């Protein structure tokens, strides 16, 4: 092995010091996650052992990778020296969790790509208070900058979508900085899925037990009757069995809708990235619902462009269309018409304004709205029925779970009251909008508008 020269020895000491510092930083991160329950004991030991082994190997072999003064005896085939700082930066950039290094005055000195995406940071990081307006987190960072230990901080945001985050803050000593000897390392852990899963389990049990109580009581009563004095009454038996079948179907629909709502809420904070053609999706929905249309002799007319690309999950958007069109069919009289229109790309105010006008006496309400973005464009899907209409006082509650409008019962196949709640949560996940307009005696118009891909948005802006 080549012995280091006098010129190389200071550089070797610096790199070995940097290697030890990087290994210590990695071990601190792993220990923080173990202390707060994010990693198991075995995983923590394996991770620390791996970091220690790699660091030791590099510590012992660092001298063979240095060659500051290239001479005629230098082997050009030898690998280039590895900068520990570059290696540490590469490790940090590879982490899927947001990590930031905060310096004096709360200024962001370093942020990995996950943190930039999570906080929406640009090329210039700036101050933490400008991108994270959470007083508890800012206070914890200030405490860490004074060299004091800090407990984890939890915070929640309700807009534009609900999210729950746990912030881990730890002080880091900067030996080479006498003016500001302390830095703060901030690690953000998105716990939205965990929180929602816990709440949904509780909600599911509460809602299911409440809504299933009535049909289960009916089934128990009919079964007791059939086992008693109606045992030999064939006419009563057939009537009771028909009612029992309807109640069983209602429970099945209720459980399916509750499960669907739970799945939607689980991913509501993560917007979709795929594209879906709304024009083709409407045709598929019409084919699926054709038997219901024929059963009530309802005419379905569709006005749409050849294609209407939108950003969205195809299965969830199909669920939106099926819910809204089924409601239009369910609450329209026999022999009436249902109209579907796709318009766009439109600005937000144009997308919210219905084209299927019901008249001056109509009431209108926005049930879900996207975050204000002046450059965004939307495709709007509007569905109009010819039902009884909905009173103004009932509009704000339409998207509540299990809410049913008085006088809008739909017979033995009554809905579960979850359809519009599912629509609202899907639209929220897609960062779109959901509006309703209704007039008594004329019907209702439900509108959903969804963002378009970037290429379509730019093309629409250029054509203006």
From TrEMBL:
<dbReference type="InterPro" id="IPR000014">
    <property type="entry name" value="PAS"/>
</dbReference>
<feature type="domain" description="Histidine kinase">
    <location>
        <begin position="207"/>
        <end position="454"/>
    </location>
</feature>
<dbReference type="InterPro" id="IPR035965">
    <property type="entry name" value="PAS-like_dom_sf"/>
</dbReference>
<keyword id="KW-0808">Transferase</keyword>
<dbReference type="InterPro" id="IPR036097">
    <property type="entry name" value="HisK_dim/P_sf"/>
</dbReference>
<keyword id="KW-0902">Two-component regulatory system</keyword>
<keyword id="KW-1003">Cell membrane</keyword>
<dbReference type="Pfam" id="PF13188">
    <property type="entry name" value="PAS_8"/>
</dbReference>
<dbReference type="Pfam" id="PF02518">
    <property type="entry name" value="HATPase_c"/>
</dbReference>
<dbReference type="InterPro" id="IPR004358">
    <property type="entry name" value="Sig_transdc_His_kin-like_C"/>
</dbReference>
<dbReference type="Pfam" id="PF00512">
    <property type="entry name" value="HisKA"/>
</dbReference>
<protein>
    <recommendedName>
        <fullName>histidine kinase</fullName>
        <ecNumber>2.7.13.3</ecNumber>
    </recommendedName>
</protein>
<keyword id="KW-0418">Kinase</keyword>
<keyword id="KW-0067">ATP-binding</keyword>
<keyword id="KW-1133">Transmembrane helix</keyword>
<dbReference type="GO" id="GO:0005886">
    <property type="term" value="C:plasma membrane"/>
</dbReference>
<dbReference type="GO" id="GO:0000155">
    <property type="term" value="F:phosphorelay sensor kinase activity"/>
</dbReference>
<dbReference type="GO" id="GO:0007234">
    <property type="term" value="P:osmosensory signaling via phosphorelay pathway"/>
</dbReference>
<feature type="domain" description="PAS">
    <location>
        <begin position="84"/>
        <end position="121"/>
    </location>
</feature>
<dbReference type="InterPro" id="IPR005467">
    <property type="entry name" value="His_kinase_dom"/>
</dbReference>
<dbReference type="InterPro" id="IPR003661">
    <property type="entry name" value="HisK_dim/P_dom"/>
</dbReference>
<dbReference type="InterPro" id="IPR050351">
    <property type="entry name" value="BphY/WalK/GraS-like"/>
</dbReference>
<dbReference type="InterPro" id="IPR003594">
    <property type="entry name" value="HATPase_dom"/>
</dbReference>
<feature type="transmembrane region" description="Helical">
    <location>
        <begin position="20"/>
        <end position="36"/>
    </location>
</feature>
<dbReference type="GO" id="GO:0000156">
    <property type="term" value="F:phosphorelay response regulator activity"/>
</dbReference>
<keyword id="KW-0812">Transmembrane</keyword>
<keyword id="KW-0547">Nucleotide-binding</keyword>
<dbReference type="GO" id="GO:0030295">
    <property type="term" value="F:protein kinase activator activity"/>
</dbReference>
<keyword id="KW-0597">Phosphoprotein</keyword>
<dbReference type="GO" id="GO:0005524">
    <property type="term" value="F:ATP binding"/>
</dbReference>
<dbReference type="InterPro" id="IPR036890">
    <property type="entry name" value="HATPase_C_sf"/>
</dbReference>
<keyword id="KW-0472">Membrane</keyword>
